[in-house]
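4.2 Preliminary Data

To establish feasibility before requesting continued support, the project team ran the inverse folding procedure on a target of 671 residues. The structure was first converted into the token representation described in Section 3, and no sequence information of any kind was made available to the design step. The complete token record follows.
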């Protein structure tokens, strides 16, 4: 018997020689789904959303109650849903687009978009000025008191306290408070800017105030004359509260000249309806109790409330509350309703059910630099530029960090290439695709790729999503962008797809995969009438002796061949036969009959004709190609004998097997 059979086609295995592959494995597999023992073409993209954004790098399907909207960003952003119970505001939190931010449905979804339209910086900045106190009047005994105050925003989120003020006075006197901060400003003026200060390619800018600003926050400068290069948005390198100076990175040769110059925060403080809470100690009790809540703009208050009354009031609950670090990224929500994020070599945790409160005690360090986080119950898998770690946090204040056992060194080389697979992380490293769980880290593509093979995929360019058991990643090669598809349940082969995208996302509400191209969002594998054309090239079969393959057979789903509907094309062709019927010119028809620049021509639907193309490859060269329309055997041309054969199937329908033999009698033996 001379010939070969291919059944249940599988994907590429680059690390194995083309002659040593298993009989149903591919030298190349493109645009196909390899499931149920069949190679099906991937369905086409179906448009679901057109955004007003110029381009999309991250997208997120936002749901509030029964309302759905697309959030889009021009940067790599992580979005986390609210841990607040019965959150009627529809809060969500995100990082990666400047400092960490929050928004609500009302703030984010307004007007035409793109969404989110509005947002605030995450957290509530605490007051920085200690109040001044003067005690007047009173005839009772002296008492020592400590006072602090906080800010509270419209959503009831309260800041940490101001520095404390200690004072002794009569218990029944009037404790007159002055000098409290008003709300932190969201904008102000500029008075100076000096180039190459404090370092080359930096500019030191003097503001009217830096209250509420911190390094890594984004501000926009406008109206600057002389040093016009300064007009724009910058991330702050440093902030000096003593001199009201900030530093930004900017290479310029220009000299500043004073004018009507302004600065504004990109992510403003949430100061709408903000209030101020004043607390004091009572007697020898060191706990702070609420005295009163006043408008945030009010900077004075006279406290004459008796101790017996104040002692019954609520105590301060935000002594440790701080906003998150401004360079925090990779924000996620844990099962215990704490949020987590990365800042340098620290993993930061919020308080449970308080996404605005990130105490210093809840920050834990690890070796290396954090790249991405993936939630695993109450724990978080920390992917770094070195060894993966696990944060165990039943409660945030008692968390611990440890190295994950497994590969000695498995750095994550692409944050957008990280996907959450339900308590575990899939991510690209230098030598393969890794699966990190709390119990270990393994290279799941070690049998598919050598390090050199994997590097050709340029894993540092991966941006990925997890869909139907598949890891789907956009990546670059030396010449083009493509999609890599890995079946994680059966990681024995890979598939490539000839598609270029800007972003990729799996929607948890429908478990569908979506991709973005420019400013449009498409559902993946959705349009069965406009499929990709799959291409699958077999291993090189080495026969026992030179032979001429004379007959072949392809088993495919020929019943799925789509007959093209040419009705629209025929209609337009007939219409164009008499150009006067087209009616596309101005004033050729009554107003309102056609849209502007339209005509009587009708759209021609995009359709992929069904076909199967068989190619015989001998000694590395294609020697025969045929369009196959049924499972009947067909003849191959007589010619040169060889020991080395392969086949390639290019198809827009599914196929299951291919038989190739030296004659018809042997075809039955190999089938």
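Position-by-position output of the design step:
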């Amino acid at each position: 018997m001379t010939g070969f059979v291919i059944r249940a086609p599988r994907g590429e295995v680059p690390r194995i020689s083309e002659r040593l592959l298993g009989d149903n494995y591919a030298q190349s597999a493109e645009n196909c789904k390899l499931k149920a023992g069949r190679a099906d073409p991937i369905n086409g993209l179906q448009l679901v959303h057109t955004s007003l954004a110029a381009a999309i790098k991250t997208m997120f399907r936002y749901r509030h109650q029964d309302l759905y909207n697309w959030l889009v960003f021009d940067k790599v952003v992580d979005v986390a849903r609210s841990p607040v119970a019965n959150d009627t505001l529809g809060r969500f939190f995100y990082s990666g687009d400047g400092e960490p931010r929050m928004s609500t449905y009302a703030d984010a979804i307004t007007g035409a978009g793109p969404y989110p339209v509005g947002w605030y910086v995450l957290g509530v900045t605490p007051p920085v000025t200690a109040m001044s106190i003067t005690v007047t009047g009173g005839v009772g005994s002296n008492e020592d008191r400590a006072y602090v105050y906080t800010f509270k925003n419209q959503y009831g989120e309260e800041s940490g306290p101001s520095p404390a003020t200690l004072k002794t006075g009569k218990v029944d006197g009037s404790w007159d408070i002055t000098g409290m901060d008003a709300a932190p400003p969201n904008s102000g003026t500029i008075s100076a800017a000096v180039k190459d200060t404090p370092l080359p390619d930096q500019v030191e800018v003097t503001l009217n105030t830096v209250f509420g600003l911190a390094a890594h926050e984004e501000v926009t400068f406008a109206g600057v004359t002389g040093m016009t290069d300064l007009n724009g948005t910058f991330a702050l390198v440093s902030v000096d509260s003593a001199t009201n100076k900030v530093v930004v990175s900017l290479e310029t040769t220009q000299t500043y000249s004073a004018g009507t110059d302004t600065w504004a925060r990109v992510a403003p403080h949430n100061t709408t309806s903000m209030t101020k809470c004043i607390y004091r100690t009572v007697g020898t009790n060191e706990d702070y109790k609420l005295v009163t809540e006043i408008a945030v703009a009010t900077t004075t208050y006279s406290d004459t409330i008796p101790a017996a009354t104040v002692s019954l009031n609520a105590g301060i609950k935000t002594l440790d509350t701080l906003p998150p670090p401004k360079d925090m990224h990779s924000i996620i929500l844990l099962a215990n309703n704490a949020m987590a994020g990365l800042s340098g070599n620290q993993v930061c945790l919020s308080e449970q059910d308080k996404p605005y409160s990130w105490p210093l005690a809840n920050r834990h360090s690890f070796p290396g630099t954090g790249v991405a986080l993936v939630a695993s119950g109450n724990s978080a898998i920390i992917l770094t530029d070195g060894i993966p770690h696990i944060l165990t946090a039943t409660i945030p204040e008692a968390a611990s960090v440890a190295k994950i056992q497994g590969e000695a060194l498995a750095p994550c080389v692409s944050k957008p290439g990280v996907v959450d697979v339900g308590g575990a992380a899939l991510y690209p490293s230098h030598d393969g695709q890794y699966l990190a769980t709390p119990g270990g880290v393994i290279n799941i593509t070690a049998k598919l790729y050598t390090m050199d093979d994997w590097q050709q995929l340029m894993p540092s360019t991966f941006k990925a999503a997890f869909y139907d058991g598949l890891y789907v990643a956009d990546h670059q090669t030396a010449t083009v962008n493509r999609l890599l598809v890995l079946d994680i349940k059966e990681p024995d082969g890979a598939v490539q797809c000839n598609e270029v995208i800007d972003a990729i996302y799996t929607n948890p509400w429908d478990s569908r995969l979506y991709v973005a191209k420019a400013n449009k969002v498409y559902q993946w594998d959705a349009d069965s009438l406009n499929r990709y054309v799959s291409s699958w090239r077999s291993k090189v079969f080495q026969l026992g002796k030179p032979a001429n393959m004379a007959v072949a057979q392809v088993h495919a789903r020929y019943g799925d061949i789509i007959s093209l509907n040419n009705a629209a094309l025929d209609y337009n062709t007939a219409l164009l036969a008499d150009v006067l019927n087209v009616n596309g010119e101005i004033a050729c028809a009554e107003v309102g009959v056609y849209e502007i620049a339209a005509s009587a021509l009708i759209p021609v639907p995009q359709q992929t004709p069904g076909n199967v193309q068989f190619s015989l490859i001998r000694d590395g060269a294609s020697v025969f190609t045929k369009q196959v329309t049924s499972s009947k055997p067909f003849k191959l041309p007589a010619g040169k004998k060889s020991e080395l054969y392969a086949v390639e199937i290019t198809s827009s329908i599914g196929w299951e097997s291919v038989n190739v033999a030296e004659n018809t009698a042997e075809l039955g033996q190999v089938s």
